[in-house]
C-alpha cells in the first residue's frame, strides 16, 4: 500500500493525471474495456467517467460474445441501464446464460443487428422478443429440436419480413424463420444436424409438418451454407437449394457451399449452376468438390470483382486454375482470400498422369502470385507441393512476393530446402518411428540454450527463413503435414493409427520452427506433423519474440513414442503472456505438475485442449492449475486414463469452479472410449469449432462474412 501511495504522489509531482486527457483520448482508451465493466463498474468511479462511459460510441455496439464473466444478472442490469442506446448486440456463443436472459433484450427497442447464435432460445421467446424489435435488420439464431414456426406471432413475422441478413444454425431439419424473411439479401446457413438421435434412431432429412412454406430468395445477394458431416445435412440443404434452382436471384454475387466428403450433384443443382452461369456475375465462389470435378462449370461462370475463391479438396489442375479462374493472369487484383486446401494438382499443369508427390510447376504458382498480388489469406495445406531444384523458383521464394498476406497455411513438405532434402537422407528410423512406440518416462530434455547461434548455423540462408522474414505482418500461420489427420475426428471413433509423414518433410524440425520467431505480429500458430523436432528449441524463440501470440496448436511433433519437446514447451509457455487458446495433440503426453506449473505463467489463458493417445494426467496438478488460472473457462482433456479417473476429475472441477465461472465447460474423457462421439455432441459449438476439433482455418470462409 505504501508503494501505491508513493507512485500516486510521484504521478502528482510529474503532473500526470489520466482525467486531464482529452475526451477523445479517454474514449479511445475506454473502447478497449468490455461494455459490462464500463457500464456496471467504471462509470461509478467519477463524474467524468460516468458521462464518458455512456457515450454513444461505446454503447452503440455491445459485444458479449467472449465476455465469459458475464452472467444473467449483469445482462439484466446492462439492458436496464443502456438498452435503448444499443443498436448492435452480439451475444454469440453465450451458451451458459439461461434462456430467460433473452427476455431482457426486449429493452433494446432500437436494435438493428442481433446475434444470438449459440444461445438457448425457444420459439415462444423468439416471438416475444422479435415482436418488440421493429428496427431489426440483421439476425443470427439457432434452430433446435422443438422449434415451431407456427408459434411466431404476426408482430414477430412483421419484424422478420424486414430482416435483410439472417444467419441460422440448424440442429434439426427445418426452414426455421427463413420463409418469414421476405426481404433477405444475405443468408448464412450452418447445418449441424446429426444422423442419429441420442436414443440411436436414424433421423430423416424431411422437414416437419407445417414447414412447407417456400423461402423468398428474390433479393438474395449472398448465399452461404456450411455442412457438418452427415447425410441428413445434405438432404436438408437440397431443400433450401430447390427454390434457388427454380429462379436464380439476379443480384446474387456470392454463392458458397462448404460440404465435407462426397456431396453428389443432382439434376436440380445442375440446373441451378447452369442458371448461374447464364444470369449472374459472382464475386465469391465455393462449391462441393463433386460439383466441380470433371465438369466444365468454371469455364462458363462469369466473375465481376472476385474477392474469395475456395476450391478445397477439388481435383482442379493448375492449368484449369490459370485458364478458367484467374483468366490467364488478368483482373484478379481484387482477390483477397484463396483456399486451395487439398487441391493436390492445383500447382501442376494437368492432373491426368500426375502423381500427387511430383514436383510443382513453378510457373503456375508465379502466375498466381503475379495475378493475385493483393492476397491476404492463402491456404495451400493438405497437399504435396514439392519444389524442383530450379534456382529462384522455390514455393517459399515465390510466396515471399505476397507482401499483403495476413494468414497462410502450408504443408510441411513445401517449406524444406530442395538441396537439403536431396543431400540429407530422411531422418533415421529410430528418430521417427512410423508406429507408436512403447510408453516411456518423460524427463527433462536438453536443448541448445543459445538459440540465436543455433538458428544462424542452419537457416538464415534457407528459403523458409527468407519467407518468414518477408511476411513481417503475418498474423496467422499453419504448417501442417500433408498426411496428418487428427486422432479425434468429428462424428467417428478416434483414429488409432496415423499415416507416416511425407519423405520431403523428414528434414523439417527445430530450425524451421525457430524461423517463425521473426513474425513479430503473429497471433495464431498451428504446427502439425513436423518429424525432425528433436528438442523443440524453436518454440522458445517463438515464445520470446512473438509476444502477440493468442492461439497455439501443436500436434504430433517429433518422435511419436516420446514427447521430445516437453522441456522447451514449458520454457516457451513462461513467455506467452497473451496466450488465450492452447491445443496440444501428442501421443504419450504427460500432463503433470511441471507442465501445469509452466502453463500457469499464461495469465491470459482461457481455453485448454489436450488430445493424447496413451497420455496421462495428474488430477491434483489440474486442480491446482485451475485454481491459479482464474481466466480459464474451458478444459478439454482426451487422454489414456480410465473412465473413473476422468469422471472424478471432471466432477471435481465443475464442483469447485462452476459457481465462480458461469461459462466453465469441462470435458475429461478417455480418447479411445466408444462413447466419445456422444460426449462431443454436448460440447458448445463455439469451443468445438474453434479449438477442440483440429482443422485448417485459413481462408475457411470469406473474410468479414458475419460481424
From TrEMBL:
**GO terms under cellular component:** SCF ubiquitin ligase complex
- F-box domain segment(s): 15-62
User: What InterPro entries does this protein map onto?
Assistant: F-box-like_dom_sf (IPR036047), F-box_dom (IPR001810), FBXL18_F-box (IPR047948), FBXL18_LRR (IPR045627), LRR_dom_sf (IPR032675)
Source taxon at top rank: Eukaryota
UniProt GO BP: SCF-dependent proteasomal ubiquitin-dependent protein catabolic process
| Name of the protein in question | FXL18 protein
Organism of origin is Pomatorhinus ruficollis (streak-breasted scimitar babbler)
Amino acid at each position: 500500500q505504501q508503494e501505491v501511495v508513493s507512485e500516486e504522489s510521484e504521478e502528482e509531482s510529474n503532473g500526470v493525471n489520466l482525467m486531464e486527457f482529452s475526451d477523445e483520448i479517454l474514449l479511445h482508451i475506454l473502447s478497449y474495456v468490455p461494455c459490462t465493466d464500463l457500464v456496471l463498474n467504471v462509470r461509478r468511479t467519477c463524474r467524468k467517467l460516468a458521462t464518458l462511459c455512456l457515450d454513444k460510441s461505446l454503447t452503440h455496439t455491445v459485444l458479449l460474445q467472449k465476455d465469459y464473466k458475464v452472467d444473467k444478472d449483469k445482462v439484466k442490469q446492462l439492458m436496464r441501464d443502456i438498452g435503448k442506446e444499443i443498436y448492435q448486440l452480439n451475444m454469440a456463443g453465450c451458451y451458459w446464460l439461461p434462456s430467460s436472459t433473452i427476455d431482457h433484450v426486449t429493452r433494446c427497442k432500437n436494435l438493428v443487428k442481433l446475434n444470438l447464435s449459440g444461445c438457448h432460445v425457444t420459439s415462444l421467446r423468439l416471438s416475444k422478443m422479435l415482436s418488440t424489435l421493429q428496427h431489426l435488420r440483421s439476425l443470427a439464431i439457432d434452430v433446435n429440436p422443438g422449434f415451431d414456426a407456427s408459434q411466431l406471432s404476426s408482430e414477430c413475422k412483421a419484424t422478420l419480413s424486414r430482416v435483410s441478413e439472417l444467419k441460422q444454425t440448424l440442429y434439426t431439419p427445418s426452414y426455421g424463420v427463413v420463409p418469414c424473411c421476405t426481404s433477405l439479401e444475405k443468408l448464412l446457413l450452418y447445418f449441424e444436424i446429426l444422423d442419429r438421435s441420442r436414443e440411436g434412431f436414424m433421423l430423416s432429412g424431411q422437414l416437419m409438418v407445417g414447414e412447407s412454406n417456400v423461402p423468398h430468395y428474390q433479393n438474395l445477394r449472398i448465399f452461404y451454407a456450411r455442412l457438418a458431416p452427415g447425410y441428413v445435412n445434405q438432404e436438408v440443404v437440397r431443400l433450401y437449394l430447390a427454390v434457388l434452382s427454380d429462379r436464380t436471384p439476379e443480384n446474387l454475387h456470392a454463392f458458397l457451399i462448404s460440404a465435407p466428403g462426397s456431396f453428389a450433384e443432382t439434376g436440380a443443382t445442375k440446373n441451378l449452376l447452369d442458371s448461374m452461369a447464364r444470369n449472374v456475375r459472382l464475386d465469391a465462389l465455393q462449391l462441393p468438390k463433386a460439383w466441380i470435378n470433371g465438369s466444365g462449370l468454371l469455364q462458363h461462370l462469369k466473375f465481376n470483382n472476385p474477392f474469395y475463391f475456395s476450391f478445397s479438396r477439388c481435383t482442379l489442375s493448375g492449368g484449369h486454375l490459370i485458364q478458367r479462374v484467374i483468366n490467364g493472369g488478368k483482373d484478379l487484383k481484387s482477390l483477397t482470400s484463396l483456399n486451395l486446401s487439398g487441391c493436390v494438382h492445383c500447382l501442376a499443369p494437368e492432373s491426368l498422369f500426375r502423381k500427387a508427390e511430383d514436383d510443382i510447376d513453378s510457373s503456375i504458382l508465379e502466375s498466381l502470385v503475379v495475378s493475385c498480388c493483393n492476397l491476404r489469406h492463402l491456404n495451400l495445406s493438405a497437399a504435396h507441393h514439392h519444389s524442383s531444384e530450379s534456382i529462384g523458383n522455390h514455393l517459399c521464394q515465390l510466396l515471399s512476393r505476397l507482401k499483403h498476406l495476413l494468414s497462410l497455411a502450408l504443408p510441411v513438405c513445401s517449406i524444406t530446402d530442395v538441396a537439403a532434402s536431396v543431400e540429407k537422407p530422411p531422418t533415421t528410423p529410430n528418430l521417427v518411428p512410423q508406429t507408436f512406440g512403447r510408453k516411456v518416462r518423460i524427463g527433462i530434455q536438453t536443448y541448445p540454450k543459445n538459440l540465436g547461434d543455433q538458428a544462424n548455423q542452419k537457416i538464415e540462408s534457407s528459403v523458409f527463413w527468407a519467407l518468414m522474414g518477408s511476411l513481417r505482418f503475418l498474423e496467422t500461420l499453419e504448417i501442417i503435414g500433408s498426411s496428418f489427420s487428427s486422432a479425434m475426428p468429428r462424428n467417428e471413433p478416434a483414429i488409432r493409427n496415423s499415416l507416416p509423414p511425407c519423405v520431403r518433410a523428414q528434414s523439417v524440425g527445430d530450425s524451421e520452427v525457430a524461423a517463425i520467431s521473426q513474425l513479430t505480429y503473429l497471433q495464431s500458430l498451428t504446427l502439425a506433423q513436423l518429424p525432425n523436432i528433436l528438442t523443440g528449441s524453436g518454440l522458445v524463440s517463438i515464445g520470446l519474440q512473438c509476444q502477440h501470440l493468442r492461439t497455439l496448436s501443436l500436434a504430433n511433433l517429433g518422435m511419436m513414442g516420446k514427447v521430445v519437446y516437453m522441456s522447451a514447451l514449458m520454457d516457451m509457455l513462461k513467455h506467452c503472456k497473451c496466450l488465450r487458446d492452447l491445443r496440444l495433440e501428442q501421443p504419450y503426453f504427460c500432463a503433470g505438475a511441471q507442465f501445469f506449473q509452466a502453463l500457469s505463467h499464461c495469465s491470459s489463458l482461457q481455453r485448454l485442449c489436450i488430445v493424447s493417445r496413451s497420455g496421462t494426467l495428474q488430477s491434483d496438478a489440474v486442480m491446482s492449475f485451475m485454481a491459479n488460472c482464474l481466466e480459464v473457462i474451458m478444459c478439454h482433456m482426451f487422454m489414456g486414463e480410465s473412465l473413473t479417473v476422468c469422471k472424478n476429475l471432471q466432477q471435481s472441477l465443475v464442483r469447485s469452479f462452476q459457481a465462480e465461472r458461469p461459462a466453465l465447460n469441462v470435458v475429461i474423457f478417455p480418447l479411445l472410449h466408444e462413447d466419445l462421439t456422444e460426449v462431443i455432441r454436448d460440447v458448445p459449438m463455439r469451443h468445438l469449432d474453434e479449438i477442440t476439433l483440429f482443422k485448417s482455418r485459413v481462408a475457411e470462409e470469406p473474410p468479414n462474412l458475419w460481424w
